[in-house]
Design goal:
Blueprint (H helix, E strand, L loop, with lengths): L20 H13 L9 E2 L4 H9 L6 E2 L1 H8 L8 H12 L4 H13 L1
Parallel strand pairs: 1-2
Keywords: DNA recombination, DNA-binding, Transposable element, Transposition
Protein name: Mutator family transposase
GO molecular function: DNA binding; transposase activity
């Protein structure tokens, strides 16, 4: 997403099966060399490699794990039969209109 709220496809890479920091460093360096001077907030899926590579190429960027992956990762702390309940109880946190509201919803979520 750009600051003008448009989406740009910057490239398509077919990897050799590796998704580590070295692979992502190559991809991000190529993007930077093609003119992508700065990245504000890359959203990653929770792998260890992308945040390390982002830090090396764009040290001021704030890496965010996508909400879907955060939610999926939280399921490991609940029994399978409770996953729907956890997902429903957590939704007000990530759909909150601002940080203060999200903090309040998270405190409520902790009490459930």
């Amino acid at each position: 997403m750009t600051v003008e709220d448009t989406r740009d496809i910057l490239g398509i890479w077919a990897g050799d099966g590796g998704e580590g920091a070295k692979y992502w460093l190559h991809v991000f360096t190529e993007l930077k060399n093609r003119g992508l001077g700065d990245v504000l907030m890359p959203v990653c899926d929770g792998l260890k490699g992308p945040p390390e590579a982002v830090e090396a190429v764009w040290p001021r960027a704030i890496v965010q794990t996508c909400v879907v992956h955060l939610l999926r990762n939280s399921f490991r702390y609940a029994a399978r039969q409770d996953w729907d309940k956890v997902a429903g109880a957590f939704k007000p946190v990530y759909t909150a209109p601002n940080e203060d509201a999200a903090t309040e919803r998270f405190l409520e979520f902790q009490e459930v």
